[in-house]
Design a protein that fits this description.
Elements lengths: L2 E4 L2 E4 L3 E2 L11 H13 L4 E3 L13 H12 L8 E6 L1 E2 L7 E2 L3 H15 L6 E4 L8 H13 L6 E4 L3 H10 L4 E5 L10 H10 L2 E2 L14 H4 L1 H10 L3 H12 L12 H8 L8 H8 L2
Parallel strand pairs: 3-4, 4-5, 5-8, 8-9, 9-10, 10-11
Antiparallel strand pairs: 1-2, 6-7
Amino acid sequence: MKYRQIGDVEVSAIGLGGMPMSIEGRPDEQRSVSTIHAALAAGITFFDTADAYHLHADDVGHNESLFAQAIASYGGDTSAVLVATKGGHLRPGDGSWTVNGDPEYIKEAAEASLKRLGLDAIGLYQFHRPDPTVPYADSVGAIRDLLDEGKIRMAGISNANPEQIRLSQEILGGRLVSVQNQFSPAFRSSEPELELCDELGIAFLPWSPLGGISAAGGLGEKHSAFREIAATHGVSPQQICLAWLLAKSPRIVPIPGSSRPETITDSAQAVDVELTAEEFGRLDAR
């Protein structure tokens, strides 16, 4: 496994996004645990979750608890594992998504996440999504307070634009370590945010890097260059997609979602794919 930096922590260059294991279509618990164990066995040390990754109003934090259980039950060394979670985005239990950027709510959500993860401090805590009814500075101010209090070790933001990134860096006193935005072959509108992260030395964590739960399996059908180059290398189009992202910037740490051991094992192998300049150009062309 190859590694990259999030703040002062070295993590695997490919992470695991846990959302598919906890929302609609979630697999049985044993398969999810096996998927997380497969990720660990493949050398993955970065795991992304959120308190909103759940189905019903009575199982808030399902994915956080699942990660905590699976990591604790793994037989190997997990001392290098970094779990990132998020707060400020909610699922009332009816399939919808809402936001709450109230500073007090964010602090309460972080405390609840801390208990579910069973940690002394959350490794990386990210403000999940801006709340249009709350000043952004106030929401990020709550993240700053959590950092100052030692409840979290590193701070990040998600679904942010360049102005919000710069504001967060100012509010956090230069301690912003990550930005988690959607980015994939079909969704490239976060290029400005990626460029700013490169400029500021901040990790960029693309969510749904393979196009999302419903589209990941058909990535090669929709994007012919990924399919053709995958055939040349004898690997999956999904590996080529992740290799393309890794080649775009040394700050990128893709977090493909998975709910099967075989898919996360395949994704982890993307770190070994070496793209030529011509191949990268074909993949990167819009």
